[in-house]
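Job type: complex structure
Entries:
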Amino acid sequence: LSSAEESVKSLGETPSLQAPRAEQPQSSERSEGSPPSTPLPLPLTSSSHSSLSIQEMVAMSPELDTYGITKKVKEVLTDNNLGQRLFGESILGLTQGSVSDLLARPKPWHKLSLKGREPFVRMQLWLSDPQNVEKLMDMKRMEKKAYMKRRHSSLSDCQPVDSGLQGVEFSRGGSPLHQQLKKPRVVLAPEEKEALKRAYQEKPYPSPKTIEELASQLNLKTSTVINWFHNYRSRIRRELFLEEVQAAGLVEEGRLVKSAEGNCCDGAESDCPIGKSASQESSLGDDSNTKSTLAYSPAPYKPTTSATQGPGINRSHASPLGLGLFSCLSDSNPSASSTISNSARLPRDSSLRKKKVANLNNIIHRLEKAASKEEPSEWEF
DNA sequence: TAACAGTCAATATT
DNA sequence: AATATTGACTGTTA
């Protein structure tokens, strides 16, 4: 990191960290809100080099504690009754959903790309000046005022309303016609997700053939299955990052937390990252332990019907996790895992353990792939 | 070209 | 109403 910083300085000038960018290539129109492009208002601390673009600042930024930053931001937002939407759109230039995700599962700084670090630098900058909170609150008030005004006029005019604009105000709940034209969002049924998760456990990187099989068996488009695997892999990764940070937090607090139970948070000040740590499951965790994860048998999974087990049932636990290459490692033999670098030690928590196993298999896949090449070069896991 | 990283934006949940 | 979740899309990487 520091070398990167040095290189930037030594170059004296950042060549072209990508031109200003056309921005918003996504869908054509973006709700008003944020300025079409460029640096955003960027609440710089007037004092410091306020002439730098965020990209430059990101490039020179020292390592930031992403977890700590999001924690602080969440605190400030809730304390001042500020929502994610406003904060995201005016400060970060991101949508509400993205903000929610970012605040809930920040990736560690060293795992972020230049682009990915940007929101964190913006948040840090925002936090650095308490005045920013006031400014945001002002914005909120103005928004509310504008909203009230609009509502009023539309009430009194009851019909014409927004006709003022060149009718660009399409969409928004209106035209039942457009709703049909736009392809509906795919929503995977719980059974389908289960099947996919099982398939993932067995093989994080399914072959095209396997993907085709899954797709036809679950009656899904191939692209949907592919997307699901991409998304699941990266989200699983993020889960692990977060769990690691929280676990580390517990240790340094000298607090032992055997497992679930959100006891902590005793009087004392600062951080207690967990309110209900482990248990979470955060939707990625597969809670259907049980159900011998043994081999993904294609047949049983028919999205339609399938009156298999209902949710909640089978809380038993202790299912021999499915045949990952590491399924042989059991809790009963802790010494076995001692040969693995501490960060890879298998946790006893069933859910977390499965994720770790999946991750290890994931790593193995990459190692094998890398090994098959001549120049191993960088092995970073 | 496959896999990723970041996001969006439609839905689901709270 | 505010947040959380998540399939899909765009741009990047190797």
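Summary: Chain A has a mean pLDDT of 65. The longest helix of chain A spans residues 222-252.
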